[in-house]
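To the wet lab folks,

You asked to see what we're planning to order before we commit. Fair enough. Below is the target structure as tokens, and below that is the sequence we designed to fit it. If anything looks off to you, flag it before the synthesis order goes out.
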């Protein structure tokens, strides 16, 4: 495959930026990763990455080895790029408003080296009108005009961790520019680069709202599943049986599609984007109820999880404070090492406060990141963690844990309570556990 003439600068080489850069480099685009963190630049230029995403490390290594990808902290190198993709963070400020400092700083640095013909594509999650009212004025300070001298658009990022490289090259891309020419330019780039369908929308602020709408829907849907789980727990009904049957109902163009309950919602986007939406409403005199509801429900699940553990241990004649609890999984999502805003942190903190003997294991999470979650002892191996445990609490559904034979779990932790926070064991597996003397309880199961 020939090297493309187009050069792409990816500004912000964190999780999303690295995934985008790796995929574009695999497509033989010249990619310049720009990041303010020297350790990230050095790591990438060694052909390495500490981001634990399936397929990312070998893709980075190959791209750097062949000269398709390099990293720098020098924003002047955006001058050599044809396309500038911005993926810096927009965290939540203390007042639940979006913290725009990183995107503003990136825009300032890009503006200093902007030239006619640049195609600037924003992928950082932004509240509506930020592209036009915050980023555009900064980029235009030196006299160049968006839509006339350079293109400017917003294309929401919709990747799911654990499948990011595949999804980036397959999921349709929503494109909204500050003018029709910018929309066309961004769509043409993604269609050429990825061969994916593009979905043009009327404006950049429409595209910004698409991202928030997607994440609000997910958070609300999970909140529905979680509240159903709390209810079915009380009436001794299996919530997954209810959801599976309910999801067979045709409704509109699709089917009912209730997602799965768990110990809570985590990650960088779902925990903050509903608050972005809520803040937008308040600024316009509208008190939106659904974003607050979904956040309250989903944030309550770690507490519910620990209360279930306490109750079920009591049924076994044990007290939580005198029990040995093995927690398997800290990451907020299965088969990733990402602990950002993980609900496991709240549940583990409550277990620590209970006075129980606690041991935590997550083979996907680095020791440094694990210490952001807990100060409890860490086990390198799940078998070490569960030995002699009164409760084995699966807080993440890693494949590593799914490969653990139930017979061996029963041998290592005889008579233990199995708390299923995200493994979604089948009815056959649950029957096997109970046959082997284990006590099973899931979220709403």
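Sequence we intend to order:
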């Amino acid at each position: 495959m020939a090297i493309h003439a187009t050069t792409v600068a990816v500004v912000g080489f964190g999780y999303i930026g690295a995934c985008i850069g790796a995929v574009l480099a695999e497509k033989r685009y010249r990619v310049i990763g720009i990041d303010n963190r020297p350790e990230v630049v050095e790591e990438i230029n060694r052909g390495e990455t500490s981001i634990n995403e399936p397929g990312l490390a070998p893709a980075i290594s190959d791209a750097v080895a062949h000269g398709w990808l390099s990293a720098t902290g020098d924003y002047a190198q955006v001058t050599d790029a044809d396309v500038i993709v911005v993926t810096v963070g927009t965290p939540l400020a203390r007042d639940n408003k979006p913290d725009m400092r990183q995107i503003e700083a990136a825009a300032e640095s890009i503006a200093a080296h902007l030239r006619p013909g640049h195609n600037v594509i924003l992928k950082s999650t932004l509240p509506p009108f930020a592209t036009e009212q915050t980023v555009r004025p900064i980029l235009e300070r030196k006299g160049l005009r968006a839509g006339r001298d350079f293109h400017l658009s917003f294309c929401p990022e919709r990747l799911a961790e654990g499948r990011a490289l595949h999804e980036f090259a397959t999921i349709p891309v929503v494109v909204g520019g500050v003018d029709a020419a910018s929309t066309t330019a961004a769509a043409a780039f993604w269609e050429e680069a990825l061969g994916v369908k593009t979905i043009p929308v009327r404006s950049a602020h429409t595209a910004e709202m698409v991202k928030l709408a997607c994440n609000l829907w997910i958070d609300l849907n999970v909140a529905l599943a979680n509240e159903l789980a709390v209810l079915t727990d009380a009436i001794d009904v299996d919530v997954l049986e209810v959801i599976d049957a309910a999801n067979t109902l045709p409704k509109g163009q699709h089917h009912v599609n209730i997602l799965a309950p768990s110990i809570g919602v985590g990650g960088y986007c779902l925990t903050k984007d509903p608050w972005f939406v809520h803040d937008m409403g308040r600024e316009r005199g509208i008190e939106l109820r659904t974003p607050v509801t979904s956040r309250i429900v989903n944030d309550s699940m770690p507490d519910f999880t620990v209360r279930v553990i306490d109750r079920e241990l009591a049924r076994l004649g044990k007290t939580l404070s005198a029990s040995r609890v093995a927690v398997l999984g800290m990451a907020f999502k299965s088969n990733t090492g990402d602990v950002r805003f993980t609900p496991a942190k709240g549940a583990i903190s409550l277990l620590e406060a209970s006075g129980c003997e606690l041991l935590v294991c997550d083979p996907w999470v680095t020791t440094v990141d694990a210490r952001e979650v807990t100060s409890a002892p860490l086990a390198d191996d799940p078998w070490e963690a569960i030995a002699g445990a009164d409760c084995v609490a699966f807080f993440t559904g890693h494949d590593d844990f799914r490969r653990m034979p139930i017979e061996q779990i029963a041998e290592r932790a005889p008579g233990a309570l199995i708390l299923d926070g995200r493994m979604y064991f089948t009815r056959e597996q649950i029957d096997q556990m109970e046959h082997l003397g284990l006590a099973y309880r899931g979220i709403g199961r």
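Structural context that might help your review: The first strand starts at residue 7 and ends at 11. DSSP finds 18 helices and 15 strands in the chain.

Thanks,
Computational group
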